[in-house]
Write a structure and sequence with these properties.
With 378 residues, the chain is of the alpha/beta class. It is 40% helix and 18% strand. The structure holds zinc ion (ZN).
Amino acid sequence: MAITYELIKTCKQTGARLGRVHTPHGSFETPMFMPVGTLATVKTMSPEELEQMGAQIILSNTYHLWLRPGEDIVEEAGGLHKFMNWNGSILTDSGGFQVFSLSDLRQIEEEGVHFRNHISGEKLFLSPEKAMRIQNSLGADIMMAFDECPPYPAEYDYMKKSVERTSRWAERCLEGHNRPNDQGLFGIVQGGEYEELRRQSAKDLTSMNFPGYAIGGLSVGEPKDVMNRVLDFTTPLLPDHKPRYLMGVGSPDSLIDGSLRGIDMFDCVLPTRIARNGTLMTSEGRLVVRNAKFARDFRPIDENCNCHTCRNYSRAYIRHLVKANETFGFRLTTYHNLHFLLKLMGRVREAIREDRLGDFREEFFEQYGFNKPNAKNF
Ligand SMILES: [Zn+2]
């Protein structure tokens, strides 16, 4: 098996899991946050910088790499790791989410999905088999099954049909996957907010014996309490000896709340995307560095942070760069936000080790300001 999971310990206070996922390109500790490198690059960061800040696994998007430069070029380069010079682990998604979220002209059939390229308008088709072929060429350590991700909210009847189709597609993915010894394929549990459908989806997928499972269809616009409720009844349906990945989640509160419910892996464009707007995550909450009040503020972004950005640059300087659209400004804000989340996950793992993740949650939420009635979140 390309991917194995080692459970190190369970937090006595919360049931959260401390573990390790082993991949063909090394292992990483869990719970873990995965920075997103859509086009085989985490925007503005070099692989050396990612390594420096403690990233151990990154995510790349199949849909985007398929359209450009094309998976054949990545394969010819020796796979994604060689192509982008990243020696840690990589996960690729299936392209399904982008097909459903980026293209408006799409037609879903049993065979797959017809849609238009969001850049050129060209007609394209993606199916479970094709998503596997592309991901086999990209060569990531972890690949994802091709699923349907319905929008929120979706009617029960539609969701039921969609869950059944996703299970049939998952079987076709397993059959179409040609490199099971080098690449681990994860199944994706869907079912929206409906417990019965999550149960059915988890039952179908766990019977297919994937080396890991994702929970999809969350963080698509539903309130946070709905997400937590879905996790409460879905996570226990997944096997203990395999990694669990909550897709598309990356706000500090949700990373803690997901870990607390037994999730091991997370990814999200949030920290890198907001960094390019000049919005920063700090130990005292959200900081919008463009604001005029920082024009003469020569303190670091976060006085409790020891990242490269905070050790060397001031709010005033970063504000100036971001307002002037200078690339270096976006590099500094991206570095800080990713470092902040990777360090946060380190603190989450430490708290699990010491059986106090519940206490840590309270302390963090208090300091971050999440407990205030009008707290600004992400
Ligand atoms: Zn920092």
